[in-house]
Write a structure and sequence with these properties.
The structure holds two protein chains of two kinds.
Chain A lengths: L5 H12 L7 H17 L4 H17 L8 H17 L14 E6 L6 H16 L3 E6 L6 H12 L3 E2 L7 H14 L4 E6 L7 H14 L3 E7 L6 H12 L3 E5 L9 H9 L3 E5 L7 E3 L2 H8 L5 H11 L2 H13 L4 H14 L2 H7 L7 H4 L5 H12 L3 H5 L6 H11 L3 H30 L13
Parallel strand pairs in A: 1-4, 1-5, 2-3, 2-4, 5-6, 6-7
Antiparallel strand pairs in A: 7-8
Helix pairs in contact in A: 1-2, 2-3, 3-4, 4-11, 5-6, 7-8, 9-10, 13-20, 14-17, 17-19, 19-20
Chain B lengths: L2 H11 L2 H28 L5 H13 L4 H17 L5 H16 L15 E6 L6 H14 L4 E4 L8 H12 L2 E3 L7 H14 L4 E4 L9 H17 L6 E7 L5 H13 L3 E5 L9 H9 L3 E5 L7 E3 L2 H22 L1
Parallel strand pairs in B: 1-4, 1-5, 2-3, 2-4, 5-6, 6-7
Antiparallel strand pairs in B: 7-8
Helix pairs in contact in B: 1-12, 2-3, 2-12, 3-4, 4-5, 5-12, 6-7, 8-9, 10-11
Classes of the chains: A alpha/beta, B alpha/beta.
The structure holds guanosine-5'-triphosphate (2 copies) and magnesium ion (2 copies).
């Protein structure tokens, strides 16, 4: 990954400070500069960064950072706490109207993910809340926008209300509400066309829809990759419409997602959901704390751990964890892990969530598809028991034999052995994080940094 | 000839409509950017540390990216020292000079690599950036030049993607080669190439599904699509255009890197410049990866596609500053 996380950034500074004993105010200044750069690289708006740094600095100067033996830890703690506070608590709830139906309006820039999210929300409401939503195709401008929503409706087997593209969106909203009442839908989800926040005419149209439909919830859909402009967009939509929440989409990418912070800072409305893929079931509650560590470049450790926990059997996990910690992992465990990792989802996505995974050269290019897993299996199966348990005995002769036995090349065998080494290292690191997380909740969210 | 004079001459020789359109599109961009620049000059009469800090903020707010901004500021500081510039207004031309230099390294960079026979252009990029819309606009453009165009509906995944391209096909009067939703995009490309060949089309525009660059499987799929095209026509695709959304922040760099690795991107289309986002990341991309911007998207209509002109882009950003500088020059 192109970005350096805050931990890595501070590490450099701290190496210089270390040995000096005490940390001076000048050192804090240098560290603040690193924090600033980390946030800017993560696309947090520069004005938001400025305010933020001022707050952190104030706290740092007033606290015992200067006396601390672990100043980096202190700074990260403060940054993380401030960031988490700014992001707010978790609020993945959707409004419920006193009188049915609850009306939800989706708004945002072109291509942000409104239509897709409309489908996802409908699915979410039905599955998690046992609701019966009606989706409304009120984008009459984009080519095939109606067809897109209808296709999603078909996939979900849920109704979509449309009147073609020759009727005004306001009229469509009106008819849709009548229809929803008639058919006893308890939710109405209005998909509107993408528009620029500076487009007076189209922003006025949203006003009118709002006036008429009196939505209980106006969700601003924001692309997680948005840069500095996120502030202007969110501010304009909010001032104009009074949004009630935000959905951050495309968080399955490798963006740091600093826009989350910008949007939160200027609108002070909760980010309620995260779009984690193109499919209708890939909508997740938004976790502000995790977002904070993601912005700081510490990997989405918590998500990863959660995923792992839902997939791994407890006792076996304990045993593995012990092995990881003590570095006793064998090739057999490796195979088993691979299998489990495969159950968690595409490996490349998992790797993206791991802190520092981007830095491990060997790992960055591991792309495990079924074919490759087959190959890895073949290689491991060609090893003797002793070799599986202690890879250090794998000399050139043995490697050649294994290559032959598995029908692979010696390079492929070498690569696997190397990757195994990297994985072991990483597992050890991760198990450390998990342990710490268990012992002490909150604070740093159980994260472990190289200099702690 | 001074930099400004050169710039001005260049712009006035362009057809007026193009310039106007471009300028209109960039008005909002410019207003905020230049407004800040003017503030900057007003507030800081002298070129000092504070001036550069403020300039840094302006560039960062345009999504230029921290690294590039730092480099740029360092160069400007050197330049200011070398030319002994003390007054803020004197540094302005240096700034736009540097930016234009960075964006355009030679003439005609934005021209497409057109072939005598059929030209195949592949469009790639992450989700929702404007690939399909850009294809529609470009088809319209080629049609107007009297070329025969075929479009390939290579996004078989997203709901309504094929229909979206078909609407564009009807709108601009161009045939769309498609298969069913869910079919293999590489197979669609194969079909499209055969169809375009037999129709003796001048241009084949290939749509692909949006994909985030960290999805290895999807990137592999894209590689395969490209491979199939190259197998059918050895030096095709003749252009691989990466579509970037001007609203995107630093992630655009990662997009450019990964898509380049997979598909050997030959140029960038920067869309949605009609908003307030500035798309400054293209400066960093140019700097690091040397990929030129070839087109800009300035709206959702079929005419809202313009060839990229670095001078105009910079001019658009600094129009007011230029004017001010000229007026000052006249007063002298
Ligand atoms: N990877 C990923 N893609 C997403 C996500 N949400 C939406 N998309 C994709 O982003 C693209 C744009 O999504 P749409 O739902 O069409 O966006 P929209 O806001 O309705 O667009 P307009 O109506 O044109 O303004 C599509 O390719 C979607 O599949 C997400 O969470 N992750
Ligand atoms: N304002 C503005 N909107 C644009 C521009 N280019 C495209 N759009 C809009 O952006 C949205 C997404 O455009 P698409 O062409 O569907 O994007 P795509 O990259 O094909 O999307 P996927 O196929 O879903 O990945 C649509 O609403 C377009 O009308 C532009 O230059 N300016
Ligand atoms: Mg839509
Ligand atoms: Mg498309």
């Amino acid at each position: 990954m192109a970005f350096e996380g805050l931990a890595e950034r501070l590490q450099g500074t701290l190496n210089k400070i270390r040995g000096k004993g005490k940390v001076s105010e000048q050192d804090v200044k240098v560290m603040m500069r690193e924090v600033r750069l980390a946030l800017l690289e993560a696309d947090v708006n520069f004005k938001v960064v400025k305010d933020f740094i001022a707050r952190v600095k104030e706290r740092a100067v007033g606290s015992d950072v200067f006396e601390s033996l672990t100043p980096g830890q202190q700074i990260i703690k403060i940054v993380n706490e401030e960031l988490t506070a700014l992001m707010g608590g978790e609020q993945s709830k959707i409004a419920v109207a006193q009188k049915s139906p609850t009306v939800v309006m989706m708004v945002g820039l072109q291509g942000a993910g409104k239509t897709t999210t409309t489908g996802k929300l409908a699915n979410h409401l039905r599955k998690k809340h046992n609701r019966n939503p009606l989706m409304v195709a009120a984008d009459i401008y984009r080519p095939a926008a109606i067809k897109q929503l209808e296709t999603l409706g078909k996939q979900l087997n849920m109704p979509v209300f449309s009147m073609g593209d020759q009727v005004s969106p306001v009229e469509i909203a009106k008819e849709a509400l009548a229809k929803a009442k008639e058919d006893h839908h308890d939710y109405v989800l209005i998909d509107t066309a993408g528009r620029l926040h500076v487009d007076e005419e189209l922003m006025g149209e949203l006003d009118e829809i709002k006036e008429l439909a009196k939505p209980d919830e106006i969700l601003l859909v924001v692309d997680a990759m948005t840069g500095q402009d996120a502030v202007n967009v969110a501010e304009s939509f909010n001032e104009r419409l009074g949004i009630t929440g935000v959905v951050l989409t495309k968080l399955d990418g490798d963006t740091r997602g600093g826009a989350a912070l910008s949007v939160k800072a200027v609108t002070d409305t909760p980010i309620k959901f995260a779009g984690m893929g193109e499919k209708v079931d890939q909508l997740e509650p938004f976790h502000p704390d995790r977002m904070a560590s993601r912005i700081l470049g510490m990997g989405d450790v918590l998500t990863l751990i959660e995923k792992a926990q839902t997939n791994v059997d407890e006792a076996r996990a304990k045993e593995l964890e012990r092995k990881m910690r003590t570095n006793e992992l064998t090739f057999d465990d490796f195979l088993e892990q691979l299998g489990q990792v495969r159950n968690m989802g595409p490996l490349d996505e998992l790797l993206n969530m791991m802190p520092g995974a981007g830095k491990m050269k060997g790992l960055k290019n591991v792309q495990v598809d079924d074919k490759q897993i087959g190959q890895i299996e073949a290689i491991v199966r060609s090893m003797t028991k002793a070799e599986k348990e202690d890879p250090s005995i794998l000399n050139a002769n043995r490697r050649r034999r294994i290559a032959k036995g598995s029908g692979t090349t010696i390079q492929e065998v070498n690569r696997l052995i190397k990757q195994f080494g990297e994985m072991k290292k990483m597992m050890k690191q991760m198990s450390g994080m998990q342990q710490k997380g268990k012992k002490k909740k909150g604070g740093l969210g159980g994260m472990k940094f190289p200099f702690m | 000839m001074s930099f400004f004079k050169k710039l001005k001459e260049k712009i006035t020789t362009q057809t007026d409509s193009v310039t106007t359109k471009f300028k209109d599109g960039l008005t909002k961009t410019r207003d905020s950017f230049v407004g800040q620049m003017n503030e900057l000059v007003k507030n800081y009469r002298s070129v000092d540390e504070e001036f550069f800090e403020e300039l840094e903020d302006i560039l960062i707010s345009a999504d230029v990216g921290v690294h590039t901004v730092m480099d740029l500021i360092d160069e400007l500081k050197d330049e200011a020292r070398r030319r002994n510039i003390k007054d803020a207004k004197d540094i302005q031309p240096v700034i736009s000079e540097k930016l234009a230099e960075m964006l355009q390294k030679s003439e005609n960079e934005s021209a497409l690599n057109m072939q005598e026979t059929m030209t195949v252009i592949l469009f790639v990029g992450v989700n929702g950036v404007g690939k399909t819309t850009t294809i529609g606009k470009m088809a319209h453009r080629f049609k107007q030049e009297g070329k025969s165009v075929v479009m390939a509906a290579g996004d078989t995944f997203r709901a309504g993607a094929i229909e979206q391209l078909e609407v564009w096909g009807e709108r601009v009067g161009v045939d769309v080669i498609k298969q069913q939703a869910g079919s293999d995009p590489a197979a669609v490309m194969f079909d499209a190439i055969q169809a375009a060949k037999s129709r003796k089309a001048d241009v084949l525009l290939c749509d692909t599904a949006g994909r985030l660059q960290n999805k290895v499987n999807l990137m592999n799929e894209l590689e395969k699509v490209k491979r199939v095209i190259s197998r059918e026509i050895p030096d095709a695709p003749h252009e691989v255009l990466l579509v970037l959304d001007a609203t995107t922040g630093q992630n655009a760099m990662s997009q450019a890197k990964t898509f380049s690795k997979t598909t050997d991107v030959s140029g960038i289309v920067l869309t949605k410049l009609d908003g307030t986002a500035k798309g400054g990341i293209v400066l960093a991309i140019r700097n690091e990866l040397d990929i030129p911007v070839k087109f800009v998207g300035l709206g959702e209509g079929m005419d809202d596609l313009q060839e990229f002109e670095a001078d105009q882009y910079v001019h658009g950003l600094f129009a007011d500053v230029l004017q001010e500088a000229e007026e000052l020059a006249e007063e002298d």
